[in-house]
Fold this protein.
Amino acid sequence: MASRFLVFLGAWVRRSALYSCLGLLPAALPADELPPLPQINPGDFEPGMQAQVQKAYVAARDNPGDPDLNGQLGMLMQSYQQLEFAEVCYRRALYNAPSEFRWGYYLGLVLVLSGKHEEAVTILKSALSERPDYLPARLRLAESLVATGGLEESEVVYRRILEKEPTVAEAYYGMGRIASARKQTDSALEYYRKACELFPSYGAAHYALALAYRLLGDKEKAKEHFALNKKFQTTMPPLQDPLLDAVSEFNAGATDHLKKGVGLGAAGLIHEAIAEHERALELDPNMVQAHLNLINYYGRMGRLDRAEEHCAAALALSPNLAELHYNYAILKSLQGDLAQAAEAFKRALEINPSYPEAHSKYGSLLMIQGQLAEAEREYRLALENDPNLRAAHFNLARILIQREKTGEAIDHLHKTLVPEDEDTPRYKYALGAAYSRAGNLGEALRYLREARTLAASLGLKDLLASIEKDLSLLEQKTNPP
């Protein structure tokens, strides 16, 4: 024990002069004692995983001094999202091999994912003293430094990344976050813009850029980037991370079916997507995301009973997930149970008060019940959090027209016209009607005619009939016989 400690300490001292100038000086030594391996029940895992988990667990348990066997168990646990268990395994691996970069990196990564940023900084600095050029570790270190308020140190890390690799979009995004934290909105905007330029599908950077434009008063640019964020919400720049790829290779079960199902769903193959998600749940009944996706898919198929089953299962697994309560509220609305729907919307908003869709849908429920003042409040809250939410603009405009605030209603209806899709004829119809109510018959005719053309091209026969009827009456009014 003492000899291993002295070897590591000697190496640490030799490196200290070099790495202190890089901001990567190891801040802590490995644990003084080998962390005990938690008990595990392979039966808690999906059938396809059980033999794999049992074999890896026994190997690590019976060989506590083997860093590879303990680390590989950690990789397996991380691949199955068992982060707490993975953390212990990586600590055991690092205890036995304190200068092995991969175990320090994996432990630091798990700590980042678990929100333990202060310790992540310590561990990642130590790991990077072994391999200071590993970009994914440097990015995670900078991210955790920002999270812990170490803005100056984080800036040093990001700048050194960009000196050698000036096309790393995530580093520009990180610099933008630092500038935002310092209230330097102009600088933040330039960094976010560069990140989006390097990776146009960078959802988080588009959102941050939209907020920066909004702070600077450029509403049109803000609207543009909020829309791009909505389109690319979960898309991140690709990052070559061979070590993380090695973790993913351990997962031979439910996650693969989930990924395949998501792809099928995006392609509109709903029956096939459902089959893949159900297969994922056979392997891992506790996969909340699979339940969540199936609520959507079964709802789209009109199979509300199956949607409710998955909603109940997901709520039992993750009762504090706002999206689940929102989906449950939508489900109850479709079933006509407005009381339970209202409670579910309120619960979703308790968990996430900035949930624009929940505010908007709750507003619609209140509107149905004739509570127009309360509905208006919800629509305005929805638009505070997402200025591009078309349904909220549309329904708020309907309330404003009833209150004879036609000018404000028209402003909101104009914000529903982009992008152009199957809802656009209805929105243009409403805008034409609003202009007619305001006495501007020229604009009323313009938008009603545009709505008629779009409705006809999309084959919306019922809507087309309504538009033609109102348009005919308006044309007779403007051109009397």
Notes: The domain at 404-481 is CATH 1.25.40.10 (Serine Threonine Protein Phosphatase 5, Tetratricopeptide repeat). The longest helix spans residues 2-20. Confidence is low (pLDDT under 50) at residues 1-29.
